[in-house]
Design a protein that fits this description.
The chain is an alpha+beta fold and 383 residues long. It has eleven helices and twelve strands. The mean pLDDT is 93.
Amino acid sequence: MRDRLVSAFRSAYARDPEVIARAPGRIEFIGNHTDYNGGPVLGAAIDRGVWVGLARRDDGVRRFVTEAHPRPTMLAAASAERMTGADAWINYPLGVLIALREAGAGTPAGFELAVVSDVPTGAGLSSSAAIELASGLAFLEAAGQVLDRETLVSVCRRAENQFVGVPCGILDQGVSGFGRRGHLVHIDCRALRFGTVELPAGFDFWIFNTHTKHALIDGLYAERHRECMEAARVIGVPLLVEATPAMLAAAETRLSRPAYKRARHVIDEIARVEQAVAALRAADGPAVGKLLFASHRSSRTWFENSSRELDFLVDALESERGILGARLTGGGFGGAAMALASAEFSAESVQRVSDAYLGTFGSRPDVMRARTDDGASLVKGSS
């Protein structure tokens, strides 16, 4: 990937980058829609990521290029307008640049920037957070600045929330920032505490991307958020992380049916995350797998953010040797399913699942094997 980045940078700017940074994509392991409810989540940084190269300019001009759009887009240093169309990807590094300045960090006034990535698009693996973290590290290094990792993660999330306009939680940036090979990232989303939990040896992730999304996905996300907040208000807590099953049962008759169902999922899912942490620390792979399947069933039944395609994949995977557990990953309403598997899950197993999916839906899912990896890092400094 480094060679690809240097080649793209040279093609666009006829020189080498002074700074190179990389950040991984991520998998939501378990903790579906718990983040904005103040709960814990588990995620994995993966061995696919985004690489950013940067070289400074002394004229205040900023130029941006990516492999998909090899002709540089030029912006003046004072420009803070959101980009649209083919240039919309620039909003991620540009938003980080603005958020860094608002946080009091120095940034380069002028620069040339290039991006390459091997994170599959549309698979829900958060290439957006990866470009934010890699860009942030590159900007800071070029300006001779340092931020602690917690602050950088928060700055990148703020860039996506406030400049890009995507109301994501801290999971994406937190996992990309705090990833560790052989481990999962454990985030307390209320206290913003980041830790890691070892993943037992011998397991990999498989991603099955359906390339389907509900036409009303943005409205459905907002609706689920509203229903969760309604449930917390009726129960009498600030966020659902503070609600217990007994409190939910006592409030059931006062809750709308949708609000009750969303709260049921979130409260149970928060417990599943902590149970998964305990099972991982005990190296109890089968127990972890059961929790993953239970998480998916809860998403399907109570949160209603699964789909026919995702349910089919999870059911098909459950019958395969070597699969410990599987569930939808990310926001849902389409997208991808994630499976935790041992070496017994083979290429022949993948083919069976893909063939069955083709027979039912008329197309094959994109399939990717992934391993845990380290979080965002500087690869080449400016000195």
